[in-house]
Amino acid sequence: MTDFVIYPHAALSQKAVARPVDAAMLAAGEQLLDAARGVQAYGLAAAHIGLAEPLVVISISGGTAERSYRVLYNPQVVLAAAETSVGPEGSVSLPGIEVPVERATWVELGYDDADGARQTARFEGFAARVAQHEIDQMNGVFFLSRVSRIKRDTALRKFGKTRRN
Q1: Tens place of pLDDT per residue across the chain (165 aa)
Q2: Pick the catalytic residue: 30, 66, 83, 134?
Q3: What is the pTM of this model?
Q4: Is 128 within 8 Å of 105 (Cβ atoms)?
Q5: 97 neighbors 4 (Cβ within 8 angstroms)
Q6: Alpha-carbon separation of residue 117 from 8, 29, 59, 73, 75 (angstroms)
Q7: Is 134 tagged catalytic?
Q8: CATH for the 10-164 domain, from 3.90.1150.10, 3.40.50.620, 3.40.50.720, 3.90.45.10
């Protein structure tokens, strides 16, 4: 099983720099995909395994029963809905903690495929939430920075208590 970095590990605040898809990035993509499958994550960013690579893995199925993963290299949100919704979010790097986060209800992403060809895709609902969460993480933005200081402090206190037990 993969060892995930735990908040506040420095990798979680490091922004990955976009670059052409290469062998190292493809290898990191396979490693991240294996890690996601291993824990049935909805999504992961390379930072979760301590890598500063510009890639994410997301489940595009949108449901909770089964995962349909896609590896996105150099992803970026190119268009987002003005309409937002609030939903629970968590992280393998902060196990056991979920907080409500506001996100766009759909996003259009630009990303490179494994061959380095630029692609676009639109994600809605839960898949859009996962994509935004993981792209934020790839850019060094941990999900707790998207909530109020009170909610962040409460979540971190709760996490501290679970780590002591």
Answers
A1: 689 999 999 999 999 999 999 999 999 999 999 999 999 999 999 999 999 999 999 998 766 667 899 999 999 999 999 999 999 999 999 999 999 999 999 999 999 999 999 999 999 999 999 999 999 999 999 999 999 999 999 999 999 998 887
A2: 134
A3: 0.96
A4: yes
A5: no
A6: 34, 16, 20, 10, 12
A7: yes
A8: 3.90.45.10
